[in-house]
Design brief:
The protein is mainly alpha-helical. It contains eight helices and no strands. The chain is globular. The model has no long low-confidence stretch (mean pLDDT 93).
């Protein structure tokens, strides 16, 4: 679980970069966001591996917050899954453009990483995680 200061900083960056989905995220409390945001990487990875990935890919963390919140309210449909993933991709690109100037080679490297992250979240493994998130939410609502 992340603390309020970290969530605050990630949301501040998301606002500065004008990321998509901020209106959606605004409905959640800090505690809800902190409980859902697990850093960069799928939940099946160990916390230590996600910490390392998050450190290496910190540029994309604000996009991951929004993406993780989309998973939190997963409806189990392919349409919402695709939306969440394309939004994540566009947000990663926006973060790269905010961080690096047009002639900075790092911007283009970040674009490649954004595409690789998009391929990961859009993969069959991402679909399984989306469906599991839906089942977990549905189970909690029934109890």
């Amino acid at each position: 679980m992340k603390d309020e200061n970290e969530i605050d900083e990630l949301l501040k960056i998301a606002v500065e970069a004008d990321l998509e989905g901020l209106d959606f995220v605004s409905q959640f409390t800090y505690d809800q966001i902190a409980a859902s945001y697990n850093g960069i990487g799928p939940s099946f990875l160990s916390a230590e591996k996600r910490r390392k990935l998050s450190r290496y890919l910190a540029l994309f963390a604000p996009a991951a917050v929004i993406h993780d919140m989309r998973y939190t309210v997963s409806d189990g449909t392919r349409r919402a899954f695709n939306y969440a993933n394309f939004e994540f991709r566009e947000n990663c690109i926006a973060l790269a453009e905010k961080a690096y100037g047009l002639l900075n080679w790092r911007r283009y490297r970040a674009y490649v990483v954004a595409e690789a992250l998009f391929a990961g979240v859009s993969s069959q493994g991402g679909w399984v995680a989306w469906c599991e998130a839906f089942r977990d939410r549905a189970t909690k609502e029934v109890k």
